[in-house]
Amino acid sequence: MSVIHRAAITGVEHYFPEKILSNADMEKLVDTSDEWIRTRTGIEKRRRVSPGQASSDLACKAITKLLKKKKMAAKDIELIIVATVTPDMMFPSTACRIQEKMAATHAWGFDLSAACSGFVFALATADQFISSGRYKNALVVGVDVMSSIIDDHDRNTCVLFGDGCGVALLQPEPEASSLGILDHLCHIDGKGGEFLYMPGGGSLYGTSSDTLSKNMHVVHQEGKQVFKHAVTEMARVSEEILEKNNLSSEDIDYFIPHQANLRIIESCQKKLKLKDDQVIVNIKDFANTTSATIPTCMSQAVDDKKIKKGDLVLIASFGAGFTWGASLIRWAF
Ligand code: UT7
Known about the structure:
- With 333 residues, the protein is α/β, with parallel strands linked by helices.
- It is 33% helix and 23% strand.
- It has helices at residues 23-29, 34-41, 55-70, 94-102, 118-131, 155-158, 209-213, 223-244, 262-271, 283-286, 293-303, and strands at 7-15, 19-22, 45-48, 79-83, 108-112, 138-145, 163-172, 180-188, 196-197, 220-221, 254-257, 312-319, 323-330.
- The mean pLDDT is 97.
- Residues 32, 36-37, 40-41, 116, 155-156, 159-160, 223-224, 226-227, 230, 260-261, 264, 288, 319 line the site of oxa(dethia)-CoA (UT7).
- Oxa(dethia)-CoA binds at residues 32, 36-37, 40-41, 116, 155-156, 159-160, 223-224, 226-227, 230, 260-261, 264, 288, 319.
């Protein structure tokens, strides 16, 4: 990949809402069991927003912590890209709402919809703005309030998801630096659309009493189909990006996969021949937070002093669309 200035992630932060729902709490909502959820998914609990708390609110909490850590003012931010499938509203964009709430008066931005691959796609997008030399400070936000589009009576989906936000600051590296974002691979295949989707509320099925009575404003998933493709494609795209950059899995310090199911993560780990301590996992405590899984894992791994400057980090995602992708990052701080 030829670049003018390599973009680097120079800061990460995360925020999870305070309310915790354990598997025992889910047992009170639907016909499920702690044992089923743990053994089939690896999930033990998830976070939920309180009434009135939206994606932009979670994002502002994470961004405020990040700016404080970086000793930056909100007006230093030039670009805000928000990966989400749960925007505050259909429009204006959540990027606009965050810009206003943060008083990031010099920033423009937009929302990006790629479901669970949202953060990987948004990172690849922001990378272009930084590596072109035109921007110096970009925020990539991965945020989802999945509880706003989940049917708490559907055991097939309600146990799987949580709410949360992770944010990364992208800045240019000095020209000779070997640190920063090395490469991305992003893929989509619309044939997968029928297996994971929310049909209502868009231009195809605008909100009506009919769409409401048919429960079309919540997530619908054929779990087995998604599982099968996730296992194959997340491992394949990881192998693909390593091979393209003449690297092997032994060169990777940390692998951060999308957190949809611990069995998917373990299967990818096995295919990539990675050891347990190379793989970052937070699904047990936070479930599948869609766009937020990878940046929250990144931020927690930095806080835990696992990921450090110079480490080679591989991230990989798979989600509705289907969408999938990977990025290789030489950690810069
Ligand atoms: O992040 C976006 C991408 N999403 C994913 O990657 C998710 C991928 N899929 C998965 O993680 C798994 O397919 C699930 C966790 C969703 C489901 O696991 P599974 O092993 O594929 O189970 P299944 O859907 O085949 O269901 C097996 C049984 C069914 O019962 P019958 O028909 O065999 O009697 C389900 O009704 O488990 C039942 N079941 C449940 N039982 C207790 C489904 N959900 C539950 C539940 N509690 N919550």
